[in-house]
């Protein structure tokens, strides 16, 4: 076997812009991330921050007419940006697996779940029907389906949310992909099921030595599963570090505010921390200066950089802008 | 001891299952089965459960939009499961609801003014100017700009819409608000905002909340007392301290251990603990549930702490708990 490098995915200067009323707006702005083998990289941020856009860009699932993707997404020296569809079809679902948020929406309601998983094998392997069937059963066992043989012939509506998500995971790992992209895989599930699915993802990774990009808004999930974390705000990565650093020494004001607004502290009587204002919409995104500056108006403008870039503060700990040096929380948040 | 505002006694909501040639009722889905809770004035009562546990059905029954099979809901000494009593007491003015999905619970073709004024119009006779003042006042309470009254629901973000939902629920000056997963569709920072407003309003108007949620973190932040529901029955009730510090029932422990904690240092231990609890839950079904898989009736452990276990099991668990301390 040839020796494979540890670097699975190298994303450099990725810009993904959507066309809205004739103009292009960057939903993901200058994204630089790498994914290594045996690593769970978590992209975390609130809705509309562009985290799913990154996933769509990697796997090439976007509207090609109205989306402009520039930059490099290097997978084994192959640039996925602008790759022709015929080649991409060989990679998508085969080398890169994808798990979506809503398992009911990502399964065909009129097709037996076993056949849906087998379909992936039909397109990407040269197994015959019998082999495919036994491989599906094997996969069902791997993802912990209680009765694999019976489940094969069931329809999605007959399964619970947790089981459906297991089917989707089975589909994603059917061809033993090197990269698994999980876009909010547990958001639609109950906490106990969520814990099981996350454990399952970790087990799969340990067995197959793949790299997982876990996209989520839940900081708890990140703290429990991720190795590396990228925090996103308004289309940009604002902080990037390993999971311990992010939760124990967060530097960027956004990361700190977000952690502060979690209802989990012991002082239950106190008000939760609220980040002032709202996330700017795609069309109203400021193009100059720090995008988070408007949410922390008590920090003087001089603290921000004119063109905020990522700085490597410590080894492998990147923070955008310099405002974190002088950032402090407001003593008393008045009004909204 | 705080005064109670509402008392739910042995509430049952069963849905019939029809099948066979004559489409006769062959069985029932016991969505809510023998649930009793007491909510005190001005306090937040948390109701926790996973999807399908019957928590929303309980909430709906309390508001009076769900047909109750049997049991009583006592408000001001009267059983309000009867529509006649609800009308006589103006019950629907005193008890309001906040829904999970703010988009589908606000009429998309009405302006915010009409949305918030609708409950006021139902119960009070105000002139147009008075009504507008009230709406402005309500919007002010939830921190919305005054020009919001001319806008439509789609012009707002999720968090703002949920705040409009809160304003509408407060409009009739209710004494109890049933909040069914009010923040589960919201982002973290927006959720913080809505929860803060809910708390402020509670202090200002002395409103009691029945806070229905699956998120144990949020419930911990909001409620003094809480109940955990599973398979239509209550598994454990008690104060916040009882439930979070000394959970007795395996289901409670399982729920608590499954919450993702922001504690990177100990995540392996947390995971191990979670899997142990899960194992215990799977192996000893017979110990925690009766023969037909239902939850046992509640037994008192101490003061307000009740758990659904047979009596001897309660004692055993208590001993184990003491040994640990």
Largest interface by residue count?
Answer: A-B, 38 and 42 residues
Q: What oligomeric state is this? A: heterodimer
Strand order of the largest sheet of chain A: 6-7-8-3-9-10-12-11
Helix content of chain B: 40-55%
Head-to-tail CA distance between termini of chain A:
60 Å
According to DSSP, the number of beta strands of chain B is: 12
Structural class of chain A: alpha/beta
Overall structural class of chain B, as computed from helix and strand content, comes to: alpha/beta
Our count of helices of chain B gives 13
**Cα shape of chain A:** globular
- Could you describe the largest sheet of chain B, including whether it forms a barrel? 8 strands, mixed
**Individual helix count of chain A:** 10
- How much strand of chain B? 25-35%
Q: How are the strands ordered across the major sheet of chain B?
A: 6-7-8-3-9-10-12-11
Q: Secondary-structure element sequence of chain A? A: EEEHEEHEHHHHEHEHEEHHEE
Please report the total strand number of chain A as a whole number.
12
Mean pLDDT of chain A, to the nearest integer, reads 88
Mean pLDDT of chain B: 88
Could you give the topology of this structure?
The complex is a heterodimer of chains A (336) and B (325).
Chain A: E1 7-20, E2 23-36, E3 40-44, H1 51-59, E4 67-75, E5 78-79, H2 85-91, E6 96-99, H3 113-124, H4 129-142, H5 148-152, H6 161-173, E7 179-183, H7 191-208, E8 211-216, H8 219-225, E9 228-233, E10 236-242, H9 243-248, H10 253-260, E11 310-314, E12 317-320
Parallel strand pairs in A: 3-8, 3-9, 6-7, 7-8
Antiparallel strand pairs in A: 1-2, 1-4, 4-5, 9-10, 10-12, 11-12
Helix pairs in contact in A: 3-4, 3-6, 4-6, 6-7
Chain B: E1 4-19, E2 24-40, E3 44-49, H1 55-63, E4 70-75, E5 78-79, H2 83-89, H3 91-94, E6 95-98, H4 112-123, H5 128-141, H6 158-170, E7 176-180, H7 188-205, E8 208-213, H8 216-222, E9 225-230, E10 233-239, H9 240-245, H10 250-258, H11 267-283, H12 285-288, E11 299-302, E12 305-307, H13 311-324
Parallel strand pairs in B: 3-8, 3-9, 6-7, 7-8
Antiparallel strand pairs in B: 1-2, 1-4, 4-5, 9-10, 10-12, 11-12
